[in-house]
Amino acid sequence: SDPLFFWYTGGPLCSSMAALLDEHGPFRIYADNKTVLINPYSWNRLANVVYTDSYIGGGFSYSTNPTKENFNQTDTQLIKDCYAAIKQFFLRFPQFRSNNFYLSGESYAGHIVPALSKMIVEKHETINSKFKGFILGNPLIDQASTGYIGDLSTLRGNALIDDSTWKMILKYCIDPYNANPYDPELNPTGFQPWKSKKCAEYSTKANKIAFPEDYDVKEDISGNERRVLTIERFYCTSVLGLNI
């Protein structure tokens, strides 16, 4: 009777194994790739969680017809595939058909989960009557405001950017954005500040200041420090390097 959650990690092309093994799954894995620790804050204490990989080529997501066309998957096609996967899940595991279910995700799933939810609501199929809603954490909805300006503001809020760099980011990235670049009356030229060379220069500088190494020092839930690869390097796949 516990609710069922379908989880989608963002990227795109980041595996949901990141959430399973480094965020809210039942275990945490140390950098030695041998030691595991039970996670007392795991979501599966309250719900059944299905960690779903997408797009094709990301994590365990694959195609039986590995052509370039299949790997160049659009958001629209992905949403259709995710819906088909949900239907297949309930066919394979009919014991969950009576459970309320939700969609959930982070980052680029901000594009996928709302659209997939809309598809579920609009398709009048029996299983969809148990769909109750969706949850998003740190979603990428608008590339500029949440995925770009939001990142820089978060770094500043955590004291990871010095004053002089932040002033330049305000000048070239954030202040022009706050002038509403999407409003044709306020911005008749269509200027997009996040694409300017100066904004790119100082946002790159900010990220180099905030993330000077390839490794982060994290504290696990027992209070012990451990060195782990940054999650983007460890769990995300780029199909650009595939030899198809």
UniProtKB/TrEMBL annotation:
- Tell me if Cell wall biogenesis/degradation is a UniProt keyword of this record: no
Q: What EC number(s) has UniProt assigned to this enzyme?
A: 3.4.16.-
Q: Does the keyword Hydrolase apply?
A: yes
Q: Which residues form the signal peptide?
A: none
Query: Which enzyme class?
Result: hydrolase
InterPro entries noted in UniProt:
AB_hydrolase_fold, Peptidase_S10, Ser_caboxypep_ser_AS
Q: Which Gene3D superfamilies match?
A: alpha/beta hydrolase (3.40.50.1820)
UniProt-listed SUPFAM superfamilies: alpha/beta-Hydrolases
Regarding protein family, the annotation reads: Belongs to the peptidase S10 family.
State what protein this is by name.
Carboxypeptidase
